[in-house]
Amino acid sequence: MDPAVFLVLSLSCLLLLSLWRQHSARRKLPPGPTPLPIIGNILQMDLKDISKSFSNFSKVYGPVFTLYIGTKPTVVLHGYEAVKEALIDLGEEFAGRGSFPVAERMNKDLGGIFLSSGNRWKEMRRFSLMTLRNFGMGKRSIEDRVQEEARCLVEELRKTNASPCDPTFILGAAPCNVICSIIFQNRFEYTDQDFLTFLKLLNEGINILSSPWIQVCNNFPVLIDYFPGSHKTFMEDMTCIQNFISEKVKEHQQSLDMNNPRNFIDCFLIKMEQEKHNQQSEFTLENLKYTVGDLFAAGTETTSTTLRYGLLLLLKYPEVTARVQEEIEHVIGRHRSPCMQDRSRMPYTDAVIHEIQRFIDLVPTSLPRAVTRDVKFRNYLIPKGTTILTSLTSVLHDDKEFPNPESFDPGHFLDKSGNFKKSDYFMPFSTGKRICVGEGLARMELFLFLTTILQNFRLKPLVDPKDINITPVVNGFASVPPPYQLCLIPV
């Protein structure tokens, strides 16, 4: 047979097989746009703003619909009711981790917390939560650490001498040092070159992960191995971070006291020793490295990006900033550090912080999940292992719960009397079984860092507030604010 004819026949067979598989799988799945062979629905999506694409699809196919990312189906949950029904009411069934090929190339064992599923995920999450609590998360001791770091942050900001500055790395250093104090039992000076390099790698990683190219790579993993691009930079950065963590682990192994754990790494190493005869133990050096990396990723970039975006919004809306500073003056004054007890007496400030998180919609679709078994959901059958994407945007920007959701308005979290108003739709940390491990710490840091900054400085923009751009520069994995500078005037 002529080679050209053979090639055409082979490609035709692959095409027909792809079409047959897609047709068979689609019969019981939720409805969705007709996918193209091989590439699925990728051409019908705006990779620069996936949330907008999801919103458009939901208007046609309803709150639960199916997209084909390449040849594999992905079920999308859009709107509060669908998200709640799946992630809370059927939490166990929707607690798997979906495919994340770019990250998986760096973590082939799927260790740690973020990429793991099943027993490994349960073990790592349970241990991490217990250990973080033992070292003070949610208690007064961790609040002391955050307050101390807030004071260091203020001193570093004073060194700008009210001159224009880009706050990116200073705001990244503060939450990173809090995590360092839990993981390593020590903080770093803001000028430490190794620390600055570490922060640069974390910051670059979140920007790359949010780019359209990474969305393409995640949809077509073959590109990761055979094509150049920013995914290569991401993997190089992550390798450097893992090497940094590995060196710290080695240092801890050499100085470990089994009877006196100093930090998270010590506790993990002690647990490893206790389970060394258990062949199925999840407590391995690889899992330690990945778990620590996950805690840094969750505890540094998410909080620092929210702080950075928050200051940009406060520059844009000086009337909001003035009201927050008035409340700080009234409740806290100038001569003591803010503490978490203050929050209950500062409803407007609390509302502003919630509105910052709601408005910026930091992680629009959260991390992909997967169903852990065949699930009947709203009369559809979702097979075990199917990837699930949750549109947190559709919940945080619900126009019935938050009138004019595209507007920045602290009133979304205030009742008619000016008291703080909770909302079940507030899900910036996701919800259900895989809600962010560090939610409590992040809430504490956002309140203490922002109030301490506003207690000590007046924010001065370099342009007229009406000309400040608050549109995210990328809106893939995370919503990243545009770069900006500001002047911090001591008060």
Automatic annotation (TrEMBL):
Pfam families: p450. One of its GO terms (biological process) is organic acid metabolic process. It is an enzyme of class 1 (oxidoreductase). One of its GO terms (molecular function) is iron ion binding. Keywords: Endoplasmic reticulum, Heme, Iron, Membrane, Metal-binding, Microsome, Monooxygenase, Oxidoreductase, Signal. It comes from the Eukaryota. Heme binds at residue 436. Residues 1-25 form the signal peptide. Its cofactor is heme. Belongs to the cytochrome P450 family. This is unspecific monooxygenase. It comes from Oryctolagus cuniculus. The gene is LOC100351599.
